[in-house]
Amino acid sequence: MVGLGAAAGMAAALGDPPADYASIPAVGLFVALMCVCIIVGHLLEENRWMNESTTALFIGLGTGAVVLFASSGKHSRVLMFSEDLFFIYLLPPIIFNAGFQVKKKQFFRNFITITLFGVVGTLISFTIISLGALGLISRLDIGALELGDYLALGAIFSATDSVCTLQVLSQDETPFLYSLVFGEGVVNDATSVVLFNAIQNFDLGDINTAKLLKFIGSFLYLFSTSTILGVAAGLLSAYIIKKLYFGRHSTDREVSIMMLMAYLSYMLAELLDLSGILTVFFCGIVMSHYTWHNVTESSRVTTKHAFATLSFIAETFLFLYVGMDALDIEKWKIVGQTYSPVKSVALSSTILALVLVARAAFVFPLSLLSNLTKKTPEGKISFKQQVIVWWAGLMRGAVSIALAYNKFTRSGHTQQPSNAIMITSTISVVFFSTIVFGLLTKPLIRLLIPPRHLSREPSALSEPSSPKSFLEHLAANNPGHPGLENGISLRRPSSLRLLLTSPSRSVHHYWRKFDDGFMRPVFGGRGFVPFVPGSPTESSVPLLARNEN
């Protein structure tokens, strides 16, 4: 017996297959498919209709059909949908990189409008979809649905697909539209998840004014504390790297600490029942403003491309899975045996119509309200831009699918027909909106905003990799010249009237004074790169900073 035990232990040590060996072919298939997506996406780079998200969707759909045929109609997926996989592993790198690469000036210049769309707009959309579902879907007689189910539908389909926005809008060509749509999408996703969780825990049988006010207070607390946590995590990473300067011994350490602290901010938010989406997004913004400038030049290049690569892989994996999940045969069989095709199409069409109406109900009125607060034409949202903002935000994605699985399944499975048809309808709406609205967004932008009116701006993190070009860029963007921004001369407000007519410029000016006077000396950033004797890549940077100051 001892000999058999020793032999078994030796066999395990020599590499017997682990218990989860069956998952290796599935992971291998996804890796191969992602390689195919990258190749096909490269070949279709110049195509005005296709983008990488729709390419991955179609490849996932085709693969699902092949798997369905090979398994004799038993299943179409090689991996079961997991909320943990989505919310813990795939979403954080996507949202963090978006914050890390975002044009901060554009984002904060439009922050009030973004918050107005992302919070108030989401609440309006949630109300219209919930009431519309209660009035229209209840008449389709799809089964016993409770009030909580209709409210959950409002939260599920209020969540826009901020991931797909990254694919269909260009931050360089349309920075204003990108900052509006994507910024709204991030706040919208966080608001939708908060609404969904609140509905799950809310006693719908006893609603009164006190509980409603408590709910509003809880939301404001969640929004503010999540943002503060993200900012604090970013500042902490900047301070640690600035003081300890890992780059003097190993650039690997400073790259690792940036990645780990960014992910830690998301996990802390989830542990504290806050919004990890908001936390990691603002952590990315702060890290790009302070931490990124405190590391060596080689680490800047590494982190910039590492974060972008992780985000790209997560996005591709996500769209591949959504495409493959569209043929979830278990749910479709239940729906096919219980409901007629007309009823399934009617349900999906009703939801899609509610999404269209709900988004229009807040985009155009809130744009008008936002324009009333703008004193300069540059900050106002034109009607053509409003149409693009409305259209680009119609896409629904993985957040909607994840919330639908959470509400209408148990561990990804359900045998109740009313739950199954909700899952298939969600998949149908996500697939249709991503492909149709996603494919038509670029042509719509070119139609409403001709190419000659598109502005191309360098990315906030697009600094060249050579030391000479880096120093030239540093000199060109030195904080010692507050009157120059992107080559445009800005006047200081010299009177109360001028202050009121150009509030965004004055706020930015005073923020720059505070940033240069207090924040950057403490936390680092552009122009405050630490000097360490013997540093081969940074030794000349402080000299330039001292000469300029």
Automatic annotation (TrEMBL):
The keyword Repeat does not apply. It is found in: Membrane. GO terms for cellular component: plasma membrane. The keyword Metal-binding does not apply. It is a multi-pass membrane protein. The chain crosses the membrane at residues 25-44, 56-73, 85-102, 114-138, 219-241, 262-287, 307-324, 345-368, 388-408, 420-440. Pfam families: Na_H_Exchanger (PF00999). Keywords: Antiport, Ion transport, Membrane, Potassium, Potassium transport, Sodium, Sodium transport, Transmembrane, Transmembrane helix, Transport. It catalyses: K(+)(in) + H(+)(out) = K(+)(out) + H(+)(in); Na(+)(in) + H(+)(out) = Na(+)(out) + H(+)(in). InterPro entries: Cation/H_exchanger_CPA1, Cation/H_exchanger_TM, NaH_exchanger. Its main location: membrane. GO terms for molecular function: potassium:proton antiporter activity; sodium:proton antiporter activity. GO terms for biological process: regulation of intracellular pH; sodium ion import across plasma membrane. Residues 35-445 form the Cation/H+ exchanger transmembrane domain. Belongs to the monovalent cation:proton antiporter 1 (CPA1) transporter (TC 2.A.36) family. This is Sodium/hydrogen exchanger. It comes from Panicum virgatum. The lineage of its organism: Eukaryota, Viridiplantae, Streptophyta, Embryophyta, Tracheophyta.
